[in-house]
Amino acid sequence: MLLADDIVATMSSMADERQRQVLLRFFKTGKGEYGEGDCFLGLKVPQVRVVVKQCRKEISLGEIKKLLYSVWHEVRLCGFLLLVDEMAAALPRKKGSPLLLAERRKELADFYLCHTRQANNWDLVDMSCPKILGNYLCHPGADGKMPSREVLYHLAESDNLWEQRIAMVTNWMLIRYGEFQPAIDIANRLLSHPHDLIHKAVGWMLREIGKRNMDVLEDYLYANASLMHRTSLRYAIEKMSESDRRLFMSKDFA
Q: Cα–Cα distance between 69 and 1 in angstroms, integer?
């Protein structure tokens, strides 16, 4: 069984100072920025994925927890991607019972929810929540019922930026399964949020709805475009025709 310390040692040996400086700037780690104080080894995502591939099936949740609490951003990413792989392995197969491994899925989702604040930058959120929490919500539990979406509303009401983004971005998986209402509800709750990373997440999920059902997106925009932050609106209308984009961006739309 692999230990977290073994993984940290392997990743530390791959450190790249030049790439580290790039990542420090890219992820806004300066004073007063959203990633203030975060520490990087200088690894690219494909390098982290190689480590994940080598480690999966050989590490316990206890050791993954240690990775999630590492000072190093890439090590935390490794922990979350290991959870993504664990959830993928627990999903029901096409020819199997939809209840297969339901208890394992719940265990992984509960574990993730205990440590959401360790996903403390947008990349950690976006690469983890849809495939961990989202996949959990899209498959029945051991009792045959679909898990409650209430967890998303709870996260949306958090005082933590990253949990609020998780509440929004997790919907990417639900939207893929044709379920739009939680995303619409949470977009409404976050409509007046002050942070750019939430504006982008809201617009992104609305755009995803539009890819699958433009009528639903247009209905939402007719009701809310005048209230939305301009960043959210620009993201939401990105795939629309030029004339529709002009309409919804019009200053006198309201």
A: 19
